[in-house]
Amino acid sequence: MGQNFLVDTNMLHAIARDADVDAGDCVLEIGPGSAGLTQALADEAGLVVAIELDRGMFEVAREMIGERQNVVLLQGDALTPEGKLNQALEGLLYAYMAHGLFHVEESDFAKAHVPHQKPPRLGRLKCVANLPYSAAGPIIMALLESNLPFERLVVMVQYEVGEKLCARPGNEQYGILSLLRAQFADARIIRKVPAAVFWPRPKVASALVELKPRKRPDPAAYARLRQLVHVFFTHRRKRASNALGNALGVSAKQAEAWIVAAGGDPGQRPDELDYAVLQKLADQGEIAKRAYEIVNEADSRARAKAERAAKRAKWRKPRDEEE
pTM score, two decimals? Predict the structure, then answer.
C-alpha cells in the first residue's frame, strides 16, 4: 500500500513532541499501520482517531493498541474516489469537535474498534501521521480543504513531497501542491528523517512537515482557482499564453489577451505568474466555464474507473474468502 512503518521508538515519541500533543488534543492519524505512532500519540493525547485502509494492518493495529480507552480505530479509506476526505470520517470528527458528540455508525466503516467509555470533549484537533507516500499529497489537500478545524498538521512524507509542500513561487519545486497548500496553511520542514528508522527501508529520504492552517479562502473562488491550475499547470514548462491556450482549447492569441487583462506577463511560465493573476484568470467567466468542463470530465472518468475497480474487488472477495 506504499507504506513504510516507523520502527524507531525515539523517533515515534519525537514526532508526538514536535506536534506538541497533550491531553487537550484529539489527534487524527491516517495510515496507522502497525500502530507504533498510534501508541506514542495515545501516551500524550486525550483521544486518537486512526483510520487504516488495509484490512490486515487494521487487525494488527487493533491487537497492538489493546484495551487503551483513548484510541478509536477505523477501517476504511480516508479519501473518496474524487480525492475528498471520507465524509463519514469528516462528519464524525466535526460533530465531536463542534458539539461533543461521538458516535460511530457501523455502516460508515468496514470495521471499527471503539472504547467502551465515551471520550471527553477536547478543545483542539490535530493530524499527526506517517502518510502512505503514494497518496500523501491528495490526503494533505483533502484535510486542508475539509471543514475540520485543525490547529496543525504534522505529517511524514517523502522528502521531495515535503519540498513541494513548502516551496515558494520561483522555487524549482513550486507547483500545484505548493500553490493550493498556500491558500490554506503555512508550511515548514521540521526535520529530515533517515531511512534507517523505517521498515522496510525506503529508497528515498523522508521529511516531517508541519502545516499551520490560517484563514480559509473563499470557497467558490478557491474552487475556480483549483480547477484552473489543474489544467493550466499540466503545461507549466511552456509560455503562459501557449499553456493556457493548449489547456483550454483556445488560440494562443486569445489566451494572451486574457493573461494581459489579468495583469500578467504572457511570456512567463504558468508557475511564474503571481497568485493574484491566477485568481483573476480563474474568475474570468469563459475561462472558469472551460476549466470546469475539463475537470468535471476528468472527475467523471475517475469515478467510473473507481466504480469498475470496486465491482472487481466485490467479485473477487467471495473467492478470496473461499480460499
Answer: 0.90
